[in-house]
Design a protein that fits this description.
The chain has 52 residues and is an all-alpha fold. The protein has a domain at 27-52. It has two helices and no strands. The protein has helices at 8-18, 29-51.
Length: 52
């Protein structure tokens, strides 16, 4: 297997994103509501609608 090096600019960007203070906070209550509505409830309703 060959050893490949990462481009320095990509390395810098990855290091910046890996810092804990650059990752932001977790999901809030409204975020979870939207995720459930758009990712679970909405597709389930579309499936039920398609079966009619």
């Amino acid at each position: 297997m060959t050893k490949q090096t990462i481009h320095p600019e990509l390395e810098r960007r990855l290091a910046e994103l890996e810092r804990p203070e650059a990752q932001g906070g977790g999901f809030g209550v409204s975020d979870w509501v939207w995720l459930m509505a758009l990712g679970v409830v909405g597709p389930a309703l579309l499936l039920v609608w398609g079966w009619q």
